[in-house]
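Data availability (excerpt). The following record was deposited with the supplementary files.
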Amino acid sequence: MSGHSKWSTIKRKKGAADAARGKLFTRLAREIQVAARNGADPAANFTLRLAIERARAENMPKENIERAIRRGAGLDKDYTDNIETVVYEGYGPHGVAILVECLTDNRNRTISEVRRTFTKGNGSLGEPGSVAWQFTEKGYLLFNRVDEEGRPTSIDPDELFLAAIESGAEDVEISEDAVEVYTERTSFAQVSQALEERGYRASQAELIMKPNNTIELAPEEATSVLNLVEALEELDDVNKVYHNLELTEEMVAQFA
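Predicted structure:
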């Protein structure tokens, strides 16, 4: 399983605590609002559809989802939507590249918090373009081969591999726990819908920033990087954090 999937698994395990504090729902609502600016119909707005599916997967109340759609689409006349997407770039300990995607209504507050967190974590906030070139935006689909209790699912990895390639996927990675499908950004909706029509429903589907190359560190060195990543993800305005650290099973076990 790739580093992206491993870290996502860790964050899902910690998701209940986020939801209890209300932070997770706030992030999901902001994501829906931003996506809904391009249309309130998820059938015609694939980005909105993905945001809604993520919210439902986290058991976000239906009324919260609908309110976020109305606000983003400008249908709620009593609400002014000034949420914007901002991406910050920087380096963590040992030169690990980090991208921080934020959804914010106050850039000054957000950059101040992000900069402070980088500094506290022995990292540094960089200039625009200093890190982004090390990542490429990709469509990402995760299909679990085992459920949360470790029982095998009905997915045949070889059949899914062929179906994904035939549907236009760029790359497919098979591990004991999952099948991960990567696509070009422009073909993400096409591949996702084609696989769904064939009966394959992803447990995770999103656009990600995939590192072009990864950095492998000793466990004790990697810990400082992951501590910084986790601290960034805890910030209210931060939506997603990407990095090019190569994750090992030992690291995953430590943070799970």
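Summary of structural features: The radius of gyration is 18 Å.
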